[in-house]
């Protein structure tokens, strides 16, 4: 819910599993091949898919938001403090900037970029409910689909209630900076407690409602919605898995380094 | 049909019996109301009638409960729920959360029962129309008002075509608009001939739909009869059950209410009586 | 089809869980002991990241498939609420500026009320949902989340939740395990860059003092995670104590292992 951008592009209409496989394969390939600039190539492969789905702007804005902090931190951590040996570029006081450190930082940063963005691409173009249904079709236990969907839907309600409590506290002037985190926590606890306790005791009624919908019934479930798939997508998925397998083999054999 | 045979029950964490010697039968097609003070055992009664006692709640019981002739204790819960539908009080808790639109939510139970897709589509679309919520079909259940959510809960249970429907204070968390929605739906439901057990506090609305009312107090059935008789009974106050405002108005009217005429429990009966 | 197999028609679910746990432990031990040979010890050019990510991913999938398949509806109904509690408290703590995460309290609650399998499943799914809604960068830490739930269940079974003063050390130990098991991911996949600048600085400092990549993140983990989980277990204990006895005792797991002690259940006016 939080990421999904509704849309009608061809990418949106692809079977969710195809997009999931695409993301996983990109990530596997990024981590399997040890060439430093390789993940950048994969990222460039990702971009046209993103553009084709019309989610370019949310994609870039979120990439910047999640990724920029990491870049800075990685380069600082490994650029300056790399524990292993190797040639030193220059010294900064007691710290040494090592070549291997910079290479490691660069490789890690690029891999993380692919990791985050491959998933972002999936999440921006796929409704979570549809993803869950598609996976259940392919054998994922329905309990997982239920838990993920239900959680996604009740979190906003809980958040709204928690916000209400925070605002009530603010209205009473109890949090105007002077309190400090411990004091604010102490005043919040009696307010948040009923929220937590109430939601837990509600579980009994929720469980009864679930059972009343035959959720505990044995046997094969059917589905109202039909999630489209095509021979072309099936073939594409096989090819993508084959590619991922190839990169893993290359890694095991120590080829391409 | 629901049959209670000398049914006594205590919850697992307690020794005191919540229901004592309940013996009654709700025949096919009847809409039977159940009223009583808090703590009397009304929810327990509802759970027992729908098989959640003993299957989910456990506990010790003597005597038995049967639905359509089969004891609920002997029927697996997954079969029972298709026979007896249960609707509870809190609209938020009855939305499964598994589905993102009202239409899919209505289909949830049928999917779990493994019905063929064409059948699911037919039943769901029909239910949307019958309950008058077709306009909400693509909305998220979490965006709806409490009354609308209760209609969705009711629909998702009715769509399984149970022969019995049990409702435990379905309007207690609703505003007047929501209450009207639910009682309107109940009116529609009783026309289908389904047997209904309706636990309720809102006596005036209940009087408008019920064929019969049971009074449960202290774990025992005290009164049993048509709403005009039961809801006007003077002993209701002593048991902690309220009464309708129409009855109270007629009582206070003293001799302005025609002597010998039974006290009213509905608006129409009150108007008719006072008009004389 | 996984689910037909997993629901016991061919392979019982617990096999998946055991296998998954074995894979996770094997991955961890391999990375710890048998450092993947390469140009550097886990740094640039090594396969450590791939092995850490891959091993943990495969292990998590197996564990969650096995753990969720046969949960009773009452437990399954609890999980979304527990995960929502994770997210809400976690974000509240963030807003308050406390130096803790406290984002696993719901997971612990499920582990204590319904056992290790349910706890592990809740932790993994909570992590996935965090990844789906807040930050995909947290996904590689699914194993730690699962471990927290699983350990909460184990400690509950052993009676640690009968008293606050046994629940707190249980939390501490759980934090130690969580910290250690996350260390390879923090080191090899994230290059020592933690969730905050502070955490990263800690890693960098340890590296500066001569520790390897893995050593540094392990030490950082041992500093912050145990405290966070100690407090989490404590809060979970308090919440559970505040719940009505009738609610707690409904769970077969609680009854079987006397999770909250063998006091006679408080007589309460049963239902209405």
Please tell me about this protein's structure:
The complex is a heterotrimer of chains A (257), B (276) and C (272). Chain A is mostly helical. Chain A has two domains: 151 residues, no CATH class; 70 residues, no CATH class. In chain A, 72% of the residues lie in helices and 4% in strands. Chain A is flat, with a radius of gyration of 24 Å. Chain A starts with 9 loop residues before the first helix and ends with a helix. Chain B has 276 residues and is an alpha/beta fold. Chain B has a single domain, classed as Rossmann fold (3-Layer(aba) Sandwich), CATH 3.40.50. Chain B is 38% helix and 21% strand. Chain B contains twelve helices and ten strands. In chain B, the strands form two sheets. Chain B has a six-stranded mixed β-sheet, sandwiched between helices. In chain B, strands 2-1-4-5 form a four-stranded antiparallel β-sheet, with helices on one face. The longest helix of chain B is centred in the middle third of the chain and has 15 residues. The N and C termini of chain B lie far apart (40 Å). The mean pLDDT of chain B is 92. Chain C has 272 residues and is mainly alpha-helical. Chain C has a domain of 186 residues: Orthogonal Bundle (Arp2/3 complex 21 kDa subunit ARPC3). The longest helix of chain C is centred in the last third of the chain and has 30 residues. Chain C is globular, with a radius of gyration of 19 Å. The N terminus and C terminus of chain C are likely disordered. Chains in contact: A-B, A-C, B-C. Chains A and C meet through helix 2, helix 4, helix 5, helix 7 and helix 8 of A and helix 1, helix 3, helix 4, helix 6 and helix 9 of C.
Task: Please outline the helices and strands.
The complex is a heterotrimer of chains A (257), B (276) and C (272).
Chain A: H1 10-13, H2 16-32, H3 38-52, H4 56-81, E1 88-92, E2 95-98, H5 99-125, H6 128-137, H7 142-171, H8 180-212, H9 231-253
Antiparallel strand pairs in A: 1-2
Chain B: E1 2-10, E2 19-26, E3 31-35, H1 42-50, H2 52-55, E4 60-67, E5 70-71, H3 77-83, E6 84-87, H4 91-94, H5 102-113, H6 117-130, H7 146-158, E7 164-168, H8 176-190, E8 195-199, H9 203-209, E9 212-217, E10 220-225, H10 227-230, H11 245-252, H12 267-275
Chain C: H1 2-9, H2 13-33, H3 48-69, H4 73-96, H5 105-114, H6 116-133, H7 142-157, H8 164-189, H9 197-208, H10 213-242, H11 245-249, H12 252-256
Helix pairs in contact in C: 2-3, 3-6, 3-8, 4-5, 4-6, 5-6, 5-7, 5-10, 6-7, 7-8, 8-10, 9-10
